[in-house]
Amino acid sequence: MDKKALLALLAVVVCLFAGFSPAFADGPNGAITRDDVISFVDKAVDFAQANGKAKALSEFMNQSGPFVRGNLYIFAYDFKGNVLAHGGQPELVGKNLIERTDTDGKKIIRELMALAIQGSGWFRYNWEDRLTRKIGPKLGYVKKVDDTWWLGSGLYEDEMDQGLSFSVDARSALGLLISSADAQLEGVLSSLSIIAETSAAKSGDWKAIRPLLAAMAKTGASGAHFFVRPDGTYFTVEKGRQDKTLSDRPYFSDLMAGKDVTGSLVISKSTGLKSAVLGVPVKKDGRVIGALGASVFIEPLNDRLREAILLPSNQLFFAMDGLGRTALHQNRDFLFVYTSEMGSPSLEAAVKQMHASKEGTVQWDMGGLGRTCIFRKSKLNGWCYGIAELSEVKKDGEK
């Protein structure tokens, strides 16, 4: 038996026996945690990759198998929205749910699929409980198996109230925040990098480039998509040639110098929306002949993260770039605000500490509330992410 076959066999054995105990024990009193759900989905992906699609889909439908445990089960879709397997509602298999909306109007499958395209992620939506047949809020986690299909699982919020609650450990939440945001940005960057290596991109001909960027735009993972020439003139999928120039953008010189752009905060010239720009240079014979880019609209990204990162009312999340400008925030009103403009000297001091370190803990006070914050920088773009806990600021003489 060769090494590859042996590893595959070991993966099967681990999935079928070692990895699937009747109950999770990671959380308090055996409660199911976010990490448990991620592990459950990871093991399903491993099983699929080790055993093949057909066998995996069959096992995901097995009501007495390891991938169906009450309301914790695996669902699988292709990237057209067709249901391939559903441990909770087998009757859905074969149906296309790409336009399925929940009671709040969210396009559930489109949102989950957009996360899967980027690799993985969390999303909150309303879905029918297979046990009670009632509609309830659910937090789902999805992951891509390969370029043809993806799968996921999740839990209902009413189950969380009965003890199956996700632990809201700040460090776990911080890790989830960074990985979820980075996965979406990195997925866009990877798609641009692939297109940049095509003969169409290297031709510098917008007519040849546009269909590739248009196909990328259909995934819904990013907003405006563009090609910019060395003189700053640019074209967007949505509006064609623009009468403005990108040569005055801070990221333009990096692209023309052959460097990737991994999240430059701008107000989009073509849409007027708050955006994080990702871009890659297009090179031909070692020379930069232009660049491809995409704007990830900040507010929808921020909303998805807020729905996925379940924090108690006394905690908030944020991310800021190297200039101290907020890229993400629990409160939309603070998006794209410089911390130096928030009127808190202690916050400014804390921001300096965060800029000087890769990770750590800082404190500041603002508006009568103290904040204790754990932070860590993203390896993708250097943004500083934090989870801050609020408390009342004690006055002099108080204990």
Could you list the spans in which at least 5 consecutive residues all have pLDDT below 50?
1-30, 161-168, 393-399
Which structural class best describes the helix and strand composition? alpha+beta
Q: What is Rg? A: 23 Å
| Helix content percent band | 25-40%
The whole-number mean of residue pLDDT values reads: 85
How many helices in DSSP terms? 11
CATH architectural designation of the largest domain? 2-Layer Sandwich
Notes on the protein architecture:
Helix 1 packs across helix 2 and helix 2 (34-51) packs across helix 3 (53-60). The chain has helices spanning 3-18, 34-51, 53-60, 108-118, 157-161, 170-196, 199-203, 206-217, 252-256, 298-308, 345-356; strands spanning 68-69, 72-73, 75-78, 83-86, 120-128, 135-146, 149-156, 225-228, 233-236, 240-245, 261-267, 274-284, 287-297, 315-320, 326-329, 359-366, 369-377, 384-392. It is an alpha+beta fold and 399 residues long. It has three domains: 3-167, PAS domain (Beta-Lactamase); 185-298, Beta-Lactamase, CATH 3.30.450; 306-392, PAS domain (Beta-Lactamase), CATH 3.30.450.
Relevant terms:
five-stranded antiparallel sheet; 11 helices; Beta-Lactamase; 3 domains; alpha+beta; 399 residues; disordered C terminus
Helices and strands in order, then pairings?
Layout: H1 3-18, H2 34-51, H3 53-60, E1 68-69, E2 72-73, E3 75-78, E4 83-86, H4 108-118, E5 120-128, E6 135-146, E7 149-156, H5 157-161, H6 170-196, H7 199-203, H8 206-217, E8 225-228, E9 233-236, E10 240-245, H9 252-256, E11 261-267, E12 274-284, E13 287-297, H10 298-308, E14 315-320, E15 326-329, H11 345-356, E16 359-366, E17 369-377, E18 384-392
Antiparallel strand pairs: 1-2, 3-4, 3-7, 5-6, 6-7, 8-9, 8-13, 9-10, 11-12, 12-13, 14-15, 14-18, 16-17, 17-18
Helix pairs in contact: 1-2, 2-3
